[in-house]
Design a protein that fits this description.
single chain; mainly alpha; elongated
């Protein structure tokens, strides 16, 4: 029984070594491929960068004006609001 266990463990170890080697070969192949692709991309690439600043006087202004009035009737409030807004303008 001990001999069968040793054979089984040897098979598992061999399988593990083969898998590790296959993964290493795959990654080395990918690295070589990436280096070749990156070399070709760098040769056919143009990079440009820049910075600019613009100083100008503002030519547009936005102003919001408003008044608030409370009163007993709508007519009174409208008249007071109109007077206040005309004074502001």
């Amino acid at each position: 029984m001990e001999e069968q266990t040793i054979k089984f463990l040897n098979k598992i170890f061999t399988l593990a070594v083969v898998l590790v080697l296959a993964v290493l070969v795959y990654f080395v192949g990918q690295m070589i491929y990436q280096f070749k692709v990156l070399d070709n991309q760098i040769m056919n690439q143009i990079s440009v960068s820049g910075e600019g600043k613009v100083y100008a006087k503002p030519d547009v202004a936005v102003v919001d004006l408003g008044v608030t009035t409370q009163g007993n009737t709508t007519a009174d409030v409208i008249k007071i609001n109109t007077d206040k807004m005309n004074a502001v303008i």
